[in-house]
TrEMBL record:
Heme b binds at residue 194. InterPro entries: Haem_peroxidase, Haem_peroxidase_sf, Peroxidase_pln, Peroxidases_AS, Peroxidases_heam-ligand_BS, Secretory_peroxidase. Ca(2+) 2 binds at residues 195, 241, 244, 249. Binds 2 calcium ions per subunit. It comes from Panicum virgatum. Ca(2+) 1 binds at residues 68, 71, 73, 75, 77, 89. Its EC number is 1.11.1.7. One of its GO terms (cellular component) is extracellular region. Keywords: Calcium, Disulfide bond, Glycoprotein, Heme, Hydrogen peroxide, Iron, Metal-binding, Oxidoreductase, Peroxidase, Secreted, Signal. This is Peroxidase. One of its GO terms (biological process) is response to oxidative stress. One of its GO terms (molecular function) is lactoperoxidase activity.
Length: 322
């Protein structure tokens, strides 16, 4: 009987140990509360300064987080430079001409390292900067779960394959997001991030010249600065949201109702398909959009994070530690 009791106690102890270890692997909103209590205020300060100098940066930091999480999970792999034989993701087609904000992340990392050396991951910096960029442009806030670690690998091939194309149809978009554990509703809410930011002529040229489900005066407006000839004015910028280009609100959905989505993939959300009702709801109910956006951002931030002893805490976000 004593032997049985002893075995039972050992079994319970093992379960508790495993439970404790599993809990330690999870993300937590208080992860740095003791080890780096100034982390969140430092991020907010640097992001605020960056947006003050360049109002587009809030949207860029949000996009950076999205492009990170969709490739290998939220692990800061997008920040890694091509060094020697190492190939990063920065030159992948979806990233090369549209992702920016690396310098802001580096500035945050330097500031955090000055007060909490070797503690905070680049992946967590990217996640928190995306939240703060959203808030500083007038969008919703949320508690960001932290504790991610940084990848020692990157995948240019995965970036080229998994990041949704601006020319994608609705079915392809739903599949791309579904492959990352995100629903069609999550996808439609996350697309609302296009209520801020700009994109280049090379990205929206096909939409304004080839699509039939586009408001013609709007198409003409964009064609005035974006010629049909590839290679001409490729880098000319246009706002993704015609109405309030630098304010995080629900105006983007109103654009879609008027067939004024700048990207083909944007207008696919309101084109006689399964997301039409949701687009209408978001266009008239800002609170509903904000709530669903927050839910989707939290879900996206939980895509395959490295935790515990996986990965590393990079000293320099652009290169793997020696």
């Amino acid at each position: 009987m004593a032997s049985s009791t002893s075995g039972h106690c050992l079994f319970l102890a093992a379960l508790l140990l495993l439970s404790s270890a599993a809990y330690g692997q999870q993300l937590s909103t208080s992860f740095y509360a003791t080890s780096c209590p100034s982390f969140e205020s430092t991020v907010r300060s640097v992001v605020s300064s960056a947006i003050g100098s360049d109002p587009r940066m809030g949207a860029s930091l949000l996009r950076l987080f999205f492009h990170d999480c969709f490739v290998q999970g939220c692990d800061a792999s997008i920040l890694l430079d091509d060094v020697g034989t190492f190939v990063g993701e920065k030159t992948a087609l979806p990233n090369a001409n549209s992702v920016r904000g690396y310098d802001v992340i580096n500035n945050i990392k330097a500031a955090v390292e000055a007060s909490c050396p070797g503690i905070v991951s680049c992946a967590d910096i990217v996640a928190l900067a995306a939240r703060d960029g959203t808030v500083l442009l007038g969008g919703p806030t949320w508690n960001v779960s932290l504790g991610r670690r940084d990848s020692t690998t990157a995948s240019k091939d995965e970036a080229n394959r998994d990041l949704p194309s601006p020319a994608a149809n609705l079915s392809a978009l739903i599949t791309a997001f579904g492959n990352k554990g995100l629903s069609a509703q999550d996808m439609t809410a996350l697309s609302g991030a296009h209520t801020v930011g700009f994109t280049q002529c090379r990205v929206y040229r096909g939409r304004i010249y080839n699509d039939t489900n586009i408001n013609q005066p709007f198409a003409k407006l964009r064609q005035s600065n974006c010629p049909a000839t590839p290679g001409v004015n490729d880098t000319v910028l246009a706002p993704l949201d015609l109405q309030t280009e630098l304010a995080f609100d629900n105006a983007y959905y109103g654009d879609l109702l008027k067939s004024k989505g700048l990207l083909h993939s944007d207008q696919e959300l309101y084109n006689g398909g399964s997301q039409d009702t949701l687009v209408k709801k978001y266009s008239s109910n800002s609170a509903a959009f904000f709530a669903d956006f927050v839910t989707a951002m939290i879900k996206m931030g939980n895509i395959n994070p490295l935790t515990g002893t996986s990965g590393q805490i990079r000293a320099n976000c652009a290169v793997v530690n020696n």
